[in-house]
């Protein structure tokens, strides 16, 4: 397939490597909003840019009816607008806060554990995420997805960065350490013990491979999808 990489930074470059390994053609590598000319002959676009610009990029891609994968975090307050634009244009869009297979399995485990823990109020849940020092947003998109799964199974309704001021808030602790690709831990802490589940990415390869698999999957489809659809976890 002919692929446009929108956001040619750390993730864009990791994605390019996998695309080439899997026999795809990278026909555009952009660090700015795509133009109509950039999008000629593009089968699928993969967008990993930054929270400030992602909405405009995705809107432009969908208005050009380019099937689009986006992994950019920190703009999700506008996801409903993007879903509407996607529908109006009969286009196709996949958003994932984390494209790695491992984290998507971890999401399943998190949902299951949250359901189990509903009956044990002596355990207090918290999330920790650790990322490299260049990361612009906190908490991570993955930590927010984990928190939302816990809200579905508990009386908690909001997350709170680095603490808990309200009874219904779930604390997310965000740490920034040089060169860490992404580590997420969900802990249930009681006076007696702690139960923890943890995912540690060893590199960006898993995120990049998942995004390329999503691009291969979306070609020829219409609608809004997630990695649950791509991986058959629905
Ligand atoms: N969902 C997932 O699985 C994952 C998501 N992410 C997310 O992906 C995003 C990118 O991460 P990462 O690659 O590490 O970040 P980088 O900062 O390394 O890359 C971002 C790139 O976007 C470019 N850019 C700036 N403005 C625009 C624009 N208007 N249009 C297109 N590109 C632009 C930047 O160019 P310049 O340097 O010239 O400004 C830079 O090359 C983040 O939001 C991160 O959280 C990261 C890993 C996995
Ligand atoms: O910025 C990153 O690097 C990452 N961002 C995503 C997030 O915010 O969850 C996914 C991954 O953890 C790496």
From TrEMBL:
Please name the GO terms that the record assigns under molecular function.
4-hydroxy-tetrahydrodipicolinate reductase
InterPro entries from the entry? DapB_C, DapB_N, DapB_N_CS, DHDPR_bac, NAD(P)-bd_dom_sf
What residues does the Dihydrodipicolinate reductase C-terminal domain cover? 102-231
Which residues does the annotation say bind (S)-2,3,4,5-tetrahydrodipicolinate? 132, 141-142
**Coiled-coil parts of chain:** none
Active-site residues, record numbering mapped to chain: 131 (proton donor/acceptor), 135 (proton donor)
Alphabetized, the UniProt keywords read: Amino-acid biosynthesis, Cytoplasm, Diaminopimelate biosynthesis, Lysine biosynthesis, NAD, NADP, Oxidoreductase
Q: What class of enzyme is it?
A: oxidoreductase
Query: Which Gene3D superfamilies does this UniProt record tie to the protein?
Result: Dihydrodipicolinate Reductase, domain 2 (3.30.360.10), NAD(P)-binding Rossmann-like Domain (3.40.50.720)
What compartments host this protein? Answer: Cytoplasm
User: Dihydrodipicolinate reductase N-terminal domain spans which residues?
Assistant: 1-99
Q: Taxonomically, which superkingdom?
A: Bacteria
Annotated pathway, please?
Amino-acid biosynthesis; L-lysine biosynthesis via DAP pathway; (S)-tetrahydrodipicolinate from L-aspartate: step 4/4
Q: What reaction gets catalysed by this protein?
A: (S)-2,3,4,5-tetrahydrodipicolinate + NAD(+) + H2O = (2S,4S)-4-hydroxy-2,3,4,5-tetrahydrodipicolinate + NADH + H(+); (S)-2,3,4,5-tetrahydrodipicolinate + NADP(+) + H2O = (2S,4S)-4-hydroxy-2,3,4,5-tetrahydrodipicolinate + NADPH + H(+)
Q: Which CDD domains match?
A: DHDPR_N
Record flagged with keyword NADP: yes
Q: Which family does it belong to?
A: Belongs to the DapB family.
Cited PANTHER family:
4-HYDROXY-TETRAHYDRODIPICOLINATE REDUCTASE 1, CHLOROPLASTIC-RELATED (PTHR20836:SF0), DIHYDRODIPICOLINATE REDUCTASE (PTHR20836)
- Return the NCBIfam families for the record: dapB
Query: Which HAMAP family has this protein been placed in?
Result: DapB
Instruction: Fill in the subunit field for this protein.
Output: Homotetramer.
Q: What is this protein called?
A: 4-hydroxy-tetrahydrodipicolinate reductase
Q: Name the species this protein comes from.
A: Moheibacter stercoris
User: Which gene name belongs to this protein?
Assistant: dapB
């Amino acid at each position: 397939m002919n692929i446009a990489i929108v956001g040619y930074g750390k993730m864009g470059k990791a994605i390019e490597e996998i695309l080439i390994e899997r026999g795809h053609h990278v026909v555009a590598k952009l660090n700015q909003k795509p133009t109509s000319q950039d999008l000629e002959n593009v089968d699928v676009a993969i967008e990993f840019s930054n929270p400030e610009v992602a909405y405009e990029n995705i809107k432009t891609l969908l208005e050009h009816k380019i099937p689009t994968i986006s992994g950019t975090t920190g703009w999700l307050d506008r996801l409903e607008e993007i879903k509407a634009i996607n529908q109006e244009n009969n286009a196709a869009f996949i958003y994932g806060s984390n494209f790695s297979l491992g984290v998507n399995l971890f999401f399943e485990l998190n949902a299951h554990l949250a359901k189990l823990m509903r009956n044990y109020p002596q355990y207090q849940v918290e999330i920790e995420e650790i990322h490299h020092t260049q990361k612009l947003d906190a908490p991570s998109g993955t930590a927010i997805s984990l928190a939302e799964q816990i809200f579905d199974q508990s009386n908690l309704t909001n997350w709170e960065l680095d603490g808990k001021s309200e009874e219904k808030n779930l604390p997310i602790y965000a740490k920034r350490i040089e060169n860490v690709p992404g580590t997420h831990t969900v802990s249930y802490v009681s006076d007696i013990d702690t139960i923890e589940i943890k995912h540690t990415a060893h590199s960006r390869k898993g995120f990049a491979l998942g995004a390329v698999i999503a691009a291969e999957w979306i070609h020829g489809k219409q609608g809004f999808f997630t990695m649950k659809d791509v991986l058959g976890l629905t």
